[in-house]
Amino acid sequence: MTVPLYLGSEEWDGPLSLLDMMQETDPRVLSCLDDYHVKLIAPAQMSDEEIMRFKTSLREVLLFIKYSKDKEKLQEILASNEARFQEVERRAVDVITAVTNSGLKYSEKEVKVDVCQAIGVGCDLETVKQWPDL
């Protein structure tokens, strides 16, 4: 089984099967082809409950990416999962920074990163207006 990981914050708009990729419409030709479905991991199309099933730092990566364009919702997610986002593996934060272009500030020597500190503000609900644009 192939499970691609799409790290965009927008919904996936590409094909999810081999036949969806083909221009062929002749039923005789199509009947000779096996279809190959892709199980795609795309944060924008996943519920928070689905993302929370992940047991690795991929969970925090997907949540951050999903809400990276919605400052208030991202802040809400960080505040409600504060303990999880206080000690995120540096490599996961590297992915978050690269994918979302969020400019998180942290030391390359850190093994675990507090994402809220890397943003430069706290995760409590009162600080949402202080957040820089990500």
Give the C-alpha Rg.
19 Å
Q: What letter string, H or E per element, gives the SSE order?
A: HHHHHHEHEH
Tally of strands: 2
List the uncertain runs.
none
Roughly what is the average pLDDT, rounded to an integer?
Answer: 86
Shape: elongated
What does this structure look like?
With 134 residues, this protein is mostly helical. The protein has a domain at 46-130. It is 40% helix and 3% strand. It contains eight helices and two strands. The chain has helices spanning 18-21, 27-30, 48-52, 58-67, 71-80, 82-86, 90-100, 115-119, and strands at residues 88-89, 112-113. It has a two-stranded antiparallel sheet with strand order 1-2. The protein is elongated. The two termini are 35 Å apart.
Summarize the entry for a quick read:
This protein has helices at residues 18-21, 27-30, 48-52, 58-67, 71-80, 82-86, 90-100, 115-119, and strands at residues 88-89, 112-113. It has 134 residues and is mainly α. The model has no long low-confidence stretch (mean pLDDT 86).
Write the layout of secondary structure elements.
Layout: H1 18-21, H2 27-30, H3 48-52, H4 58-67, H5 71-80, H6 82-86, E1 88-89, H7 90-100, E2 112-113, H8 115-119
Antiparallel strand pairs: 1-2
Helix pairs in contact: 4-5, 4-7
Short key terms for the protein model shown above:
8 helices, 134 residues, 2 strands, elongated, mainly alpha
